[in-house]
Design brief:
Length: about 100
């Protein structure tokens, strides 16, 4: 097919951004995001500007995306991740060695 803007990927990026901004849990947001990408891809496929897709894989992709996004949410909510994100400051009274 000719080189075209991948609208389905842009739709997915916007939907992920909206879900993260609204703080929707990943396991819940993954299904509408996948549906939005599939609808955008279907629209582009109807005019024949994307390579052929295996449409039967879309439900499996949605479930996999939900599991991965939910796992990422659980990881980032853990105490270990919070400790990893904590700023490391020099001890009080010590000169900055940078």
């Amino acid at each position: 097919p000719p080189s075209v803007l991948p609208v389905m990927l842009l739709a997915g990026a916007v939907l992920v951004d909206l879900a993260v901004t609204a703080r929707v849990p990943g396991w819940l947001a993954a299904l509408p995001v996948t549906a939005g990408v599939a609808l955008a891809a279907l629209a582009q496929a109807s005019v024949g500007v994307i390579p052929p897709w295996d449409w039967a894989a879309v439900p499996f992709i949605a479930v996999g995306f939900a599991v991965l996004w939910g796992g990422a949410d659980r990881l980032t909510a853990s105490r270990a991740f919070a400790r990893w994100q904590a700023p490391v400051e020099p001890a009080p009274g010590r000169p900055d060695d940078t």
